[in-house]
Amino acid sequence: MQLRSGMRLCVTNRRRRRCAIDRLVLWNIDLTLLDVGRVSREAYADAFRRVTGRPLAALPQLAGRSDTEIFFESLYLNDVPTGQDETADSELLARYCWELETAFAMRQDEILQQGRLLPGARAALMATAALPGVVQTVLTGTIKPNAACKLRAFGLDRLFDLEIGGYGSDAYPRGSLLLMSKGRATEKYGTPITEDSAVYIADAVRDIEAAGIGGARCIAVGTGRSTVAELRDAGADLVLPDLSDTDQVISAIDRLTRVPAGR
After folding, report:
1. Would you kindly state where each structural domain of the chain is located, as residue ranges?
2. What backbone torsions phi and psi does residue 123 show, to the nearest 5 degrees?
3. Phi, psi at 233, each rounded to 5°
4. Domain covering 11-36+116-256, topology
5. How far apart are CA 164 and CA 216, in angstroms?
6. In 3-state terms, what secondary structure has residue 30?
7. Which of 219, 213, 205 shows the shortest CA–CA distance to 254?
């Protein structure tokens, strides 16, 4: 059976078995790998209107926020009352996530036409996929279907194991999502993923804080709203202007996730 380059799938008797991986590389998506801000804003407005019956007149800051946070802050900014209890709010959020997924699916072509990959993103992902013992996933504020939609538009989805990622559809802080993703990787692949074998690549100060909470190294890139100086002050293990120097990116990932001999 021939597999596409970068894929780590082991197939035996029509069943997937665990592959030998001992390093986890997590990527933020928006403003780290790609920029689809215009399409995102249109999709948010469409989903918000369908759920609330009102136009989205004021949109909160998107950088570093999950889709769940964006929705509830949008309700506040646009004077839309939330439900009477936690159950009602959960139902409202579920409806919004469904509408947001639909809005993105309708804009699949626009993502490619109006969005763009950031410098060096494709080369960095492909080179990382070739590193021994590495599996890649995402840790993003985007809900899972839309994360896959964004990556698929640029032909990047095949480079990730999206089953073990962390997404904005889960109402947890990003640090907790990172812990959950490490746990999923450990369970799926059979090798414990520790702080020394996981690295998160992202663009916001909040992402660096999440890496510290979730137990991972952090490579920050200055392609988002946070400045290089802010990223350094927040304690990233390494700060790069962008992903355009593939050798530098891969060298950093390899160094930060190097596991002890004999593991």
Report:
1. 11-36+116-256, 37-112
2. -65, -40
3. -65, -30
4. Rossmann fold (3.40.50)
5. 15
6. strand
7. 219
The pTM score is 0.89
DSSP per-residue string spanning 182-233: HHHHHHHHSS---GGGEEEEESSHHHHHHHHHHT-EEEEETTSSS-HHHHHH
CA distances from 190 to 30, 134, 157, 184, 233 (A): 30, 13, 23, 10, 36
- What tokens were used for 162? 């999206």
What confidence score (pLDDT) does residue 165 get?
97
The predicted-structure confidence for 178-228, as pLDDT tens digits, reads as follows 999 999 999 999 999 999 999 999 999 999 999 999 999 999 999 999 999
Q: pLDDT for 106-115, tens place per residue? A: 998 999 999 9
CA 83, 89, 91: angle at the middle one, nearest 5? Answer: 115
Please state, in angstroms and as integers, the Cα–Cα distance from residue 209 to each residue in 24, 89, 261, following that order: 18, 27, 29
